[in-house]
């Protein structure tokens, strides 16, 4: 299996860096081929601007989706973006690894998504009609590939529980799991989350490292998050609202997009 890890932490000699080493070593021991995009080490450019689209007229307005679409279609995106797109096409499994900062991913990783997920590559693909609304949410270029988040958080697991003050971790990560991974077609695995990482001593790290190794061993077998596919008949087109009879009584928000029958 080809595994791409997109690593977003500014300090390589950190807990995240140590967990990356553990994951890479375990994957290699299993015979997988691993590539790492270390965004800070690469000095990844996070902000989208006109420099991303060399073929764009310098005096014209920037419509990112159109410039992205035209640049991708003409093979005229910047070399750094094209290199990351090639890695995504090469990978069978993609892991986004990052610390949870202000309830989201670091800006550099969001910038990787903004620039690499070009129109025509990760979105804006497929037929748009009264029967389909494009190839997305379970379909698309990344269909058949698996993906997962590996996240560190300073708070306690109770802080991210259903009644925790920070909100359920699955809700906080929904925009990434569902909107960034499932949208272009990835089969999304449950996230691996490490809590209370600022209080990690050597015995606790040993336990955590073993948990990372175990997760790396199960990437091909662990059951994915059972998100509903857009074009399987669960949603009304073109409003893309879940059919009323499919939502459990009282269910609302993110949970309605899970299909319990697929557990």
TrEMBL record:
Start and end of every Flavodoxin-like fold domain?
1-204
Pull one GO CC term from this UniProt entry.
cytosol
Keywords from UniProt, A to Z, are: Oxidoreductase
Q: Name the source's superkingdom.
A: Bacteria
Tell me which InterPro entries the record gives. Flavodoxin_fold, Flavoprotein-like_sf, NAD(P)H_dehydrogenase_qn
- Signal sequence coordinates: none
The record's listing under Pfam families reads:
Flavodoxin_2 (PF02525)
User: GO molecular function terms here?
Assistant: NAD(P)H dehydrogenase (quinone) activity
Q: Which Gene3D superfamilies match?
A: 3.40.50.360
Recorded family membership: Belongs to the NAD(P)H dehydrogenase (quinone) family.
Q: What is this protein called?
A: NAD(P)H-dependent oxidoreductase
Organism from which the protein derives: Gluconacetobacter diazotrophicus (Acetobacter diazotrophicus)
């Amino acid at each position: 299996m080809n595994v791409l890890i997109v690593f977003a932490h500014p300090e390589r000699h950190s807990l995240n860096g140590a967990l990356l080493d553990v994951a890479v070593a375990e994957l290699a021991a299993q015979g997988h081929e691993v590539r790492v995009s270390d965004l800070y080490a690469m000095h990844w450019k996070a902000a989208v601007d006109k420099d991303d689209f060399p073929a764009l007229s310098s005096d014209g307005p920037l419509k990112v989706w159109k410039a992205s679409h035209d640049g991708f279609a003409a093979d005229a995106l910047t070399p750094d973006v094209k290199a990351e797109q090639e890695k995504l096409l090469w990978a069978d499994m993609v892991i986004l690894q990052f610390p949870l900062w202000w309830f989201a991913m670091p800006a550099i990783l969001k910038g990787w998504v903004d620039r690499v997920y070009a129109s025509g590559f990760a979105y804006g693909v497929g037929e748009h009609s009264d029967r389909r609304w494009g190839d997305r949410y379970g379909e698309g270029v990344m269909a058949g590939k698996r993906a997962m988040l590996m996240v560190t958080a300073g708070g306690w697991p109770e802080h991210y529980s259903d009644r925790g003050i920070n909100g359920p971790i699955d809700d906080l990560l929904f925009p990434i799991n569902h909107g960034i991974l499932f949208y272009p077609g990835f089969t999304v695995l449950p996230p691996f989350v490490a809590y209370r990482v600022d209080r990690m001593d050597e015995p606790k790290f040993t336990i955590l490292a073993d948990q990372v190794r175990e997760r790396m061993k199960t990437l091909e077998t662990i059951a994915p998050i059972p998100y509903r596919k857009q074009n399987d008949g669960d949603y009304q087109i073109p409003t893309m609202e879940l059919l009323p009879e499919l939502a459990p009584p009282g269910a609302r928000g993110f949970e309605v997009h899970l299909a319990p029958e697929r557990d």
